[in-house]
Amino acid sequence: MIREEVFMKEQGFQDEFDDIDDIATHILYFVDESPVGTCRFFDGEEPGDAHIGRMAVLKAYRGKNLGAEIMLAAEKAIQEQGYKICSLSAQVQAKGFYEKLGYVQEGEEYLDEHCPHILMRKTF
């Protein structure tokens, strides 16, 4: 529901759900027993790399540091599973958010559907 609201309805993405949902670990953030934020992670392209994706917070709950809390929860779970690197495909408009969490851009911008993205990584 969160991803549909944020990515499809707000941002206009079409290809939101995929087979990775079946194998990924999902993080769900609740406020007063209601889900308001989420992300998922799965094996990245390189050994020891976990890839975080589909990080989203419902509009009414943004600006309250929940996105950072979701990312920290995902990173904790990732480290507990023995991963040493975390990668993500960030929307360019969210680059600063991820930089504050220690992620560094790698490579050039690319389009995912209609939206500019960049690859970012963090080593633990």
Automatic annotation (TrEMBL):
<dbReference type="GO" id="GO:0016746">
    <property type="term" value="F:acyltransferase activity"/>
</dbReference>
<keyword id="KW-0808">Transferase</keyword>
<dbReference type="InterPro" id="IPR000182">
    <property type="entry name" value="GNAT_dom"/>
</dbReference>
<dbReference type="InterPro" id="IPR016181">
    <property type="entry name" value="Acyl_CoA_acyltransferase"/>
</dbReference>
<dbReference type="Pfam" id="PF13673">
    <property type="entry name" value="Acetyltransf_10"/>
</dbReference>
<keyword id="KW-0012">Acyltransferase</keyword>
<dbReference type="InterPro" id="IPR050832">
    <property type="entry name" value="Bact_Acetyltransf"/>
</dbReference>
<protein>
    <submittedName>
        <fullName>GNAT family N-acetyltransferase</fullName>
        <ecNumber>2.3.1.-</ecNumber>
    </submittedName>
</protein>
<feature type="domain" description="N-acetyltransferase">
    <location>
        <begin position="1"/>
        <end position="124"/>
    </location>
</feature>
